[in-house]
Amino acid sequence: MHAMHRPEIPIIDLIRNPEHPLLSLEFFPPKDEKGMGQLKKVAQQLLVTHPNFVTCTWGAGGSTHRRTLTVCEMLQTIGFPPIMPHLTCVGESRLALGNIAAEIYNHGFRNIMTLRGDPPRGESTFVMHPNGFKYASELVLFLKNRYPDVCCGVAGYPEAHPESESVEEDIRHLKEKVEAGASFITTQLFFDNALYFSFVDRCRNKGIDVPIIPGLLPAISLKQVERFTNMCGALFPEKLAANMRKVGGEGEAAQQVGIKWCADQINELLDSGVPGIHLYVLNRSNAALAPAVMDCFSRKRPLGIIS
Ligand code: FAD
Question: Does the pTM of the predicted model rise above 0.90?
Answer without folding.
Answer: yes
